[in-house]
């Protein structure tokens, strides 16, 4: 990779940069500070390194954002800086960096403990995406394993600084992460040892030693969290309040949301979906008193996939089938976008399935990941809608298409500038699209889809309600007039969700550790639906869904402030 020109940010260029070039220069500089981002983007030089998660490392990232914002202002004033493409990129870059700086300056990086997304999780998870095809790749893995102690020491320094500043993480997050660390460290072999065991024999001694080095760092962090950090945060709140919530919601959604309106919208969706679920449940089990009684019956009597590897293969075939049937009719897909892999998530992952994007050169394909949570038997009604969300036409089609058009837009718009609510909103829209197109072929699968939609509506209700301690409306079937607590949130979700109590508990802990992220699914879906409907009205009979989908997926990332208006204009 060539070095960016110091005055312009363009590799080998002497012209004054426009916003898209400023954005891509930011990506180059970010990769230098954050090798995990480099690996996500497919940069080979990143494979042996890990970021500095210390307060100093965090401040370096913040200073990069400040410098980039200064350069962006100058770029926008230059001839051509106000074209549609430059304007869209500039708005995204300014909104994202401003939101990130607000989070940094509030010290959120000094209390980053979560069961799903934290520096700790990034350190482990990046090994599942690090190239391992050659001995040279594995030599880089050795170096990355040897970098784990310094990375975790920086993370510990940030948490320690948070304690000094009176910025504790939630106690429930800490207890959960301690449990995850125990699983990763193991009793006989650690996660890092298992990972290193798949490497070449020519590097066996180096891999085993480096894995032991990394495992020792996990053990030291576990002991410090247990003996020092956990006692220090005991009694701290597990909810964040309106001010912190609004700041974090901006970060995840790209919009200064009206939180009370969003809370009311979540309830309206709850009531709409409940009525639809009752109709489908009647078809599945006429004697059922609630939709979840029908879903519980399906857990024992519905369509199943048996075996972990068999389930992985079944999910692969589901995505392959979706690509075959959608390509050319509702999408126009490049060959490299059609490649997606189904994987089983590493042990110790959170309960929710997830997706990882392809590298920009597609040498690493997009991948869906199924956490098995020790199970070997999986309900089809749950898998189908979830894999339309995580895989095709959900996350994979959007994020792989972004990678495909990254040269036409900017790498920033199609990678690190991603807004969670945009991507999660598209994935939820994708589930609905498959329902609209008739892919949910029976009441069993459609009830599962509606149950998944209901979970996303409940996320809006309890994520906002719990953190803001809002009142439960009078027309609620659950504790009307009371104020939300984490305990009530878990009870409510347990009663209106087909998933196990362990899954529900993991979800509540997730919402407490990532305030404002979970609401983006439904709020993002609303923006996608509103944008499509506005475009349909504008075009009338000439509206072409395939053309609209491809244009929508090729515009790169946008926050919710801009997404609906840009979709409407396509």
Q: Your description of this structure?
A:
There is one protein chain. By secondary structure, the chain is mainly alpha-helical. It folds into three domains: 1-106, no CATH class; 113-236; 248-521, no CATH class. The protein has helices spanning 19-33, 35-41, 55-76, 84-105, 119-125, 135-164, 171-185, 191-196, 204-233, 241-253, 259-284, 291-301, 308-326, 380-390, 395-404, 411-414, 420-436, 443-468, 486-495, 501-513, 520-539, 545-553, 560-568, and strands at 304-306, 340-344, 354-356, 366-370, 377-379. The strands form two sheets. The protein has a three-stranded mixed sheet with strand order 2-4-3. Strands 1-5 form a two-stranded antiparallel sheet. It is globular.
Category from helices, strands and their pairing: mainly alpha
SSE order: HHHHHHHHHHHHEHEEEEHHHHHHHHHH
Spans of at least 5 consecutive residues whose pLDDT stays below 50 are 1-13
How much strand? under 5%
Domain unit count: 3
């Amino acid at each position: 990779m060539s070095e960016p020109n110091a005055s312009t940010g363009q590799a080998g260029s002497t012209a004054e940069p426009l916003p898209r070039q400023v954005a891509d220069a930011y990506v180059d500089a970010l990769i230098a500070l954050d090798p995990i981002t480099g690996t996500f983007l497919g940069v080979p030089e990143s494979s042996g390194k890990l970021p500095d998660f210390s307060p100093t490392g965090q401040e370096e990232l913040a200073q990069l954002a400040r410098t980039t914002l200064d350069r962006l202002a100058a770029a926008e004033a230059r001839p051509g800086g106000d074209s549609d493409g430059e304007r869209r990129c500039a708005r995204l870059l300014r909104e994202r960096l401003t939101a990130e700086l607000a989070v940094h300056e509030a010290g959120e990086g000094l209390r980053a403990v979560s069961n799903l997304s934290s520096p700790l999780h990034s350190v482990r998870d990046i090994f599942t995406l690090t190239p391992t095809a050659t001995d040279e790749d594995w030599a880089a893995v050795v170096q990355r394993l040897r970098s784990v102690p310094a990375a975790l020491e920086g993370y510990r320094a940030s948490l320690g600084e948070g304690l000094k500043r009176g910025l504790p993480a939630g106690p429930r997050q800490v207890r959960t992460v301690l449990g995850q660390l125990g699983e990763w460290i193991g009793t006989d072999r650690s996660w890092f040892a298992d990972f290193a065991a798949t490497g070449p024999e020519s590097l066996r001694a180096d891999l085993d030693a480096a894995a032991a080095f990394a495992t020792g760092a996990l053990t030291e962090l576990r002991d410090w969290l247990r003996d020092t950090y956990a006692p220090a945060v005991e009694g701290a709140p597990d909810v964040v309040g309106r001010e912190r919530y609004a700041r974090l919601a901006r970060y995840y959604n790209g919009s200064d949301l009206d939180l009370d309106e969003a809370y009311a919208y979540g309830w309206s969706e709850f009531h709409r979906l409940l009525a639809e679920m009752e109709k489908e449940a009647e078809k599945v089990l006429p004697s059922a008193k609630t939709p979840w009684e029908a879903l519980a019956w399906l857990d024992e009597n519905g369509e199943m996939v048996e075996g972990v590897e068999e389930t992985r293969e079944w999910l692969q075939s589901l995505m392959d089938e979706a690509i075959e049937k959608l390509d050319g009719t509702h999408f126009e897909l490049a060959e490299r976008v059609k490649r997606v892999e189904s994987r089983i998530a590493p042990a110790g992952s959170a309960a929710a399935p997830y997706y990882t994007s392809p590298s920009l050169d597609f040498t690493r394909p997009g991948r869906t990941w199924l956490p098995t949570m020790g199970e070997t038997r999986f309900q089809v009604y749950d898998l189908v809608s979830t894999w339309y969300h995580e895989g095709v036409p959900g996350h994979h089609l959007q994020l792989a298409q972004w990678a495909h058009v990254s040269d036409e837009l900017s790498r920033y718009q199609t990678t690190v500038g991603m807004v969670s609510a945009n991507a999660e909103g598209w994935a939820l829209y994708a589930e609905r699209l498959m329902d609209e197109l008739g892919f949910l072929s029976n009441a069993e699968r459609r009830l599962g889809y509606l149950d998944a939609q209901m979970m996303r509506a409940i996320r809006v209700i309890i994520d906002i309600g719990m953190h803001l301690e809002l009142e439960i409306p009078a027309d609620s079937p659950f504790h009307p007039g009371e104020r939300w607590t984490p305990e009530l949130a878990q009870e409510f979700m347990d009663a209106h969700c087909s998933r196990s109590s362990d899954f529900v508990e993991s979800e509540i802990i997730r919402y407490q550790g990532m305030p404002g992220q979970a609401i983006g699914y439904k709020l993002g879906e609303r923006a996608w639906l509103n944008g499509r409907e506005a475009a349909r009205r504008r075009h009338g009979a000439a509206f072409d869904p395939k053309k609209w989908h491809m244009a929508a997926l090729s515009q790169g990332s946008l926050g919710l402030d801009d997404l609906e208006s840009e979709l409407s204009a396509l």
